[in-house]
Specification:
By secondary structure, the protein is an alpha/beta fold. 30% of the residues lie in helices and 27% in strands. The structure holds adenosine-5'-diphosphate and magnesium ion. Belongs to the ABC transporter superfamily.
């Protein structure tokens, strides 16, 4: 099933064409990886195709609805975003960070949250612990859980492993992939690291 359809999208910034006629079909079980060196427009592309940033021309459909103005509902219900800097609330607890924004998930019990933590290999931590006490790799896994519990249908991830060492980076991408396969979530991830292409159902290299 087609989840996201991007047709001939163009984005110009300060008279420079950053995205030139980009098209992509993302099915609901796709794990799309977009690679490219720094400055090739990965972040711009992700922001445009997720509707965060305005495009200059072209069409983007999410579940057949044209992405444009009035995105709040679509964003809240359908789209998840993982950033390179995880944007966690540093002075808040692990539990609060996982549940943030997940309105309809307030009912998650502590036991369920603990099971989620185990699923991302974070067994020993306490729900009441401040996220700032965790390592970078652990914090990024909390950011992943925060996105997962929202049960969004499509996740956009901008260099989610950018701040992690090699071992943590691979394990994070594997978690994202397993989860997308189990729950049929589509993922569009950009990365400068070609090592992750092995996980992709579709791969695009920007030059
Ligand atoms: N807000 C902006 N103003 C001016 N130039 C920008 C802006 N955003 C991106 N660019 C330019 O667009 C190009 C692509 O940037 P970006 O999408 O961040 O690439 P990447 O994520 O692949 O490193 C770069 O040349 C960058 O300088
Ligand atoms: Mg970038």
């Amino acid at each position: 099933m087609v989840k996201l359809q991007v047709n001939n999208v163009v984005k110009v910034i300060e008279k420079k064409t950053i995205i030139d006629n980009f098209s992509l079909t993302v099915n609901s079980n796709d794990f799309v990886i977009i690679t490219g060196k720094s400055g090739t427009g990965k972040t711009t592309l992700l922001n445009v195709i997720s509707g965060l940033t305005r495009r200059d021309s072209g069409e983007i459909y999410l579940d057949d609805a044209l992405i444009g103005k009035h995105m709040q509902n679509i964003w809240r219900n359908k789209i998840g975003f993982i950033f390179q800097d995880n944007l966690l609330l540093e002075n808040q607890t692990i539990k609060k960070n996982i549940l943030i924004g997940a309105k309809f998930n307030k009912k998650l019990s502590d036991e369920e949250i603990n099971n989620l933590l185990i699923s991302v290999d974070l067994k020993g931590v306490s729900l009441k612990q401040q996220v700032s006490t965790l390592s970078g790799g652990e914090q990024q896994r909390i950011a992943l859980l925060r996105t997962m519990v929202k049960r969004n249908e499509i996740i956009f991830a901008d260099e989610p492993t950018g701040n992690l060492d090699k071992v943590n980076a691979i394990s994070l991408v594997k978690l994202l992939k397993d989860w997308s396969m189990e729950d049929q979530h589509a993922v569009v991830m950009v990365t400068h690291n070609p090592e992750f292409i092995q996980f992709a159902t579709k791969h695009i290299n920007l030059v």
